[in-house]
Design a protein that fits this description.
The protein is mostly beta strands. Helix content is about 0%, strand content about 50%. It is globular. This is Cupin domain-containing protein.
Length: about 110
């Protein structure tokens, strides 16, 4: 069993204006997946990339854009997205405030 709050979980700066937190994963007892919380500051963006695993996204707060397979998908609080494996994608902050989203990947996707 694991109970916490996002304010109590370690924050790691993984790129300029991008903070990652591992909310739940193998260390908390969820062996197969990792639920991460990303905070993108104004003008922040994750690198453009693809990988051999799928993931799901849930927008928590703010405004963002998901660039996926040559298209742009606006994301706002409550938006959900599924990104298949091997699809080029990138997430960026599209607003004036922080863009916060949850991303769940298989364990191997957070190595």
């Amino acid at each position: 069993m694991f109970v916490s709050h996002r304010d109590e979980i370690e924050k790691k700066q993984i790129a300029d204006k991008v903070i990652k937190q591992i909310l739940i994963g193998p260390d908390q007892g969820w062996e197969d997946y990792v639920m991460r919380l990303f905070t993108l500051e104004r003008n922040g963006k994750a690198p453009h990339h693809s990988h051999p695993w799928q993931h799901v996204i849930f927008a928590v707060e703010g405004e963002g854009n998901l660039f996926m397979d040559g298209k742009v998908y606006p994301l706002t609080s409550g938006s959900v997205a599924y990104v298949p494996e091997e699809i080029d994608h990138q997430i960026s902050n599209a607003g004036e405030k922080q863009f916060v989203f949850i991303c769940i990947v298989p364990k191997r996707g957070d190595a």
